[in-house]
Design brief:
The protein is mainly α. Helices cover 85% and strands 0% of the residues. It has one domain. Helix 1 packs across helix 4, helix 2 packs across helix 3 and helix 4 runs antiparallel to helix 5. The longest helix has 28 residues. It is elongated, with a radius of gyration of 16 Å. The N and C termini lie close together (12 Å).
Length: 130
Amino acid sequence: MLDRQMQALLRIGAAIIALAAITALISPSTLAGALGLPLDLDAAKFLWVIRISAGLLLPLAGFMTLAAAFFPERALRQSGALMIAFALILAFLLVIAPTPWVWGRIACIALALLFTLLYLKALRARLRHR
């Protein structure tokens, strides 16, 4: 049961991260606008920082997909715990970001917290079935 839940969460999370990363690579200003990030300082440099961040997220999405496909149950649990930390850090950074509260920022925070709860639920289900 944990295997299927964790595999599904990793695959869905990987798809969302890959979509955001591809969007940031192709059109970083779209992602910046959705998150309420200011482009008034040095827009060209700032957009490259977004592209570099996207380049770092793509391997994470690939790793999550491989983990869902090939990891045994224990490694899936550890991946779930790691993704809880990643989602909480993402939500925290978005909450404290000095940017306006726009729909994209709120949606990303909500999605990160939703994934945190879903990973916790999947890990707790494993503890109940021991």
